[in-house]
Amino acid sequence: MVLAHDRPEVVYFNVTEHATAQWVGQQMVEAFPWDTAPRYLLRDRDAIYGERFRRRVRSLLIKEVITAPRSPWQNPYVERIIGSIRRDCLDHIIVFNEGNLKRILTRYFEYYHRWRTHLGLEMDTPHGRDVHTSDQGKVVEVPDLGGLHHHYVRLAA
């Protein structure tokens, strides 16, 4: 999973049952095609980020910033979103396989980016949302993730 640091937004993710350094490095290439890579990558010291991964990141001209050992507070965005994914989604759904997990997470991230409000964004969403006044019509509940979550919109009068 690759996150933007200016807003709590997942810019890329993929799933696999058996991640390797080569696979994770390839995900970086897929996340940032055509010279769109960021200048810095903040990451932890997981063994998956081996030499193959580091070579791939260097080829993208990304400078790695590595957190101190056993210091999850140095990357709070990742810790927060992983907790949100577990609490808001995966603790309530049975996952059958990789394809199923990818579909579930795709739908969750759509909800997370468009409808889930964040205190750190002054109750806005990562993609922003319009605030509707009470004179704009009736409020309608719209289910997300098969009814696990909901968002609300106003219908035009």
CATH superfamily: Ribonuclease H-like superfamily/Ribonuclease H
Outline the low-pLDDT stretches: none
Q: Sheet bearing the most strands, described?
A: 2 strands, antiparallel
Structural domain tally: 1
Average pLDDT reading: 90
Instruction: Classify the beta-strand content into a percent band.
Output: 15-25%
The CATH architecture category equals 2-Layer Sandwich
User: What gross morphology would you assign?
Assistant: elongated
Q: Which CATH class applies here? A: Alpha Beta
Series of H and E elements: EEHEHEHHEE
Overall strand count: 6
Features:
alpha+beta; two-stranded parallel sheet; single chain; two-stranded antiparallel sheet
How would you characterize the overall build of this protein?
The protein is α+β, with helices and mostly antiparallel strands and 157 residues long. It has one domain: Nucleotidyltransferase, domain 5 (2-Layer Sandwich), CATH 3.30.420. It is 32% helix and 17% strand. It has helices at 21-31, 51-59, 76-88, 98-114; strands at residues 2-4, 9-12, 40-43, 63-66, 139-144, 149-154. A two-stranded antiparallel sheet has the order 1-2. Helix 1 (21-31) runs parallel beside helix 2 (51-59). It is elongated, with a radius of gyration of 18 Å. The N and C termini lie far apart (41 Å). The model has no long low-confidence stretch (mean pLDDT 90).
